[in-house]
Design goal:
The protein is of the alpha/beta class and 363 residues long. The chain contains 12 helices and 9 strands. The two termini are 35 Å apart.
C-alpha cells in the first residue's frame, strides 16, 4: 500500500503528501476553528461554515509554510551538490529525503539554518503586515482575515524557534552536530546530538503525559528520529571505504525462468534463501522473491513458472561501487538483495544480511 501521493514538483524535487498529513489537516482546521479569538482562533466567527473554512485555510497555509521551510533546506543542499529525492509532508511537519547528508560542518550548518530562516522570514513579514494594517486602521482588529495573517505569522515564528532547539532530529540538533564536528569526530558529534535529542524527547513526553498528550506523541517521533539518525550515521561512517566486492556473495544460487513456483518453494525451504536471481545460460532475466510467490494461489503453483512472476526491471550495482551506496539502494527501494554485474554478467549478490554482517564485523 502506498503511504504517500505525489502532488507535483518544485525545483525538480517531487513533493509528496503522506497519509498522516491528510488525516491531520482536518484536525488542525477543527482546532483553529474552535480556538478563542485571543489565541488567533475563529470560535466567534459567524456563520459556522465560514469559521471552519478559515480554520482549513490556516491549516493549509501553515503546511504550505512548512513546505517552504523544507525547500529552504533543499535549495542550500542542491547548491552544495546534494541530491534531494523528495519532500514529504506528514503528521508533524515535513521531511526532505536527501541521498547523503554532507559531512562538512560548514555546509551542514548552512543547510540546518536555512529552513528556520525561511520560517522566521515568513513569520516576521506576516506579523509586520498585520501590525501595519492595524496601525493604519485598514481593517478592524476583529476582522477574521487579520487574525488569519497574525496566526500564520505567529506559528511560523514558533516553528522557527522550536526547530532550533539543539536536539536531533530537529534543525537545532544538526546545528549542534555541525558545531561539535569541528571539535570531535563526526560520529561522536552525532551521538552527542542524538543523546541530547533523546533526553529532550523523554522530558517532553513526561511533561506532555500530564498536560497535553499531543506533546507525548511528538516526543515519541523525536526520540525515534534521534535514534535512527544516530544509527544511520554510524553505519555510513563504518562502511566508508568498503566496496561491494568486499562484502558480496560470489557463490550465488540461481533458478531458471522455467522453474515452477512449487519447485522454487522447495528450494526456499531447503536452502533458506528467500530470493533468487533468474538466470538462463549466462543472461540474468530477473529476480524472484518470496513476496512474488505469495501472489500465486496454492493450487496454481505447479503450473506457474518463475518467468511469470519474477521482477524484470533490476536495480544492479558494480563491484567497485561503495557499500554505502548499495545500502541506500536497498533501503530506498525496499529490497532484500541487489545483483552485482560485470560486463552484463552476474558476478555476485549483496543482501541486507551481507551489509549488516559487514557492519557488525567492522564495528
Amino acid at each position: 500500500m502506498k503511504t504517500s501521493i505525489q502532488i507535483g514538483k518544485i525545483m525538480g524535487i517531487p513533493i509528496k503528501l503522506h497519509i498522516t498529513f491528510l488525516l491531520i489537516l482536518p484536525v488542525f482546521a477543527w482546532m483553529f476553528a474552535r480556538n478563542e479569538a485571543q489565541f488567533g482562533g475563529f470560535s466567534d466567527v459567524e456563520p459556522v461554515m465560514f469559521r471552519y473554512l478559515l480554520g482549513m485555510a490556516a491549516s493549509v497555509l501553515l503546511f504550505a509554510c512548512v513546505l517552504l521551510h523544507e525547500l529552504g533546506h533543499s535549495y542550500v543542499a542542491k547548491k552544495h551538490g546534494s541530491n534531494i529525492n523528495n519532500i514529504t509532508l506528514f503528521l508533524f511537519g515535513g521531511v526532505s529525503s536527501m541521498e547523503e547528508t554532507p559531512k562538512d560542518p560548514k555546509t551542514e550548518l548552512k543547510m540546518a539554518i536555512s529552513g528556520p530562516a525561511v520560517s522566521l522570514l515568513i513569520g516576521s513579514a506576516l506579523i509586520m503586515i498585520h501590525g501595519i494594517f492595524r496601525q493604519e486602521a485598514l481593517f478592524n482588529e476583529d476582522n477574521p482575515y487579520m487574525r488569519l495573517i497574525w496566526l500564520v505569522g505567529f506559528l511560523n515564528v514558533v516553528l522557527c524557534f522550536f526547530n532550533m532547539i539543539p536536539a536531533f532530529p530537529m534543525d537545532g540538533g544538526r546545528v549542534l552536530r555541525a558545531w561539535l564536528a569541528g571539535r570531535m569526530s563526526y560520529i561522536k558529534a552525532t551521538r552527542t546530538a542524538a543523546n541530547i535529542g533523546k533526553m529532550f524527547a523523554i522530558f517532553m513526553g513526561f511533561f506532555g503525559f500530564f498536560y497535553n498528550i499531543l506533546l507525548t506523541l511528538i516526543a515519541f517521533f523525536i526520540y525515534i528520529g534521534a535514534s535512527e539518525e544516530e544509527k544511520s550515521t554510524e553505519v555510513t561512517v563504518i562502511l566508508e571505504g568498503v566496496k561491494v566486492k568486499d562484502i558480496m556473495s560470489t557463490e550465488v544460487m540461481t533458478v531458471s525462468s522455467e522453474t515452477t513456483v512449487e519447485e522454487l518453494l522447495d528450494m526456499m525451504f531447503k536452502y533458506k534463501h528467500m530470493g533468487y536471481p533468474v538466470v538462463d545460460g549466462s543472461e540474468v532475466k530477473g529476480i524472484v522473491t518470496f513476496s512474488d510467490v505469495q501472489k500465486v494461489a496454492r493450487e496454481d503453483r505447479k503450473n506457474v513458472n518463475v518467468s511469470q512472476i519474477m521482477t524484470k526491471e533490476l536495480i544492479t550495482a558494480k563491484e567497485n561501487d561503495e557499500a554505502v551506496t548499495v545500502m541506500k539502494l536497498l533501503t530506498k527501494n525496499n529490497l532484500g538483495r541487489i545483483i552485482e554485474k560485470k560486463d552484463e554478467k552476474m558476478i555476485g549478490i549483496v543482501s541486507r544480511t551481507d551489509v549488516l554482517r559487514a557492519v557488525q564485523l567492522l564495528e
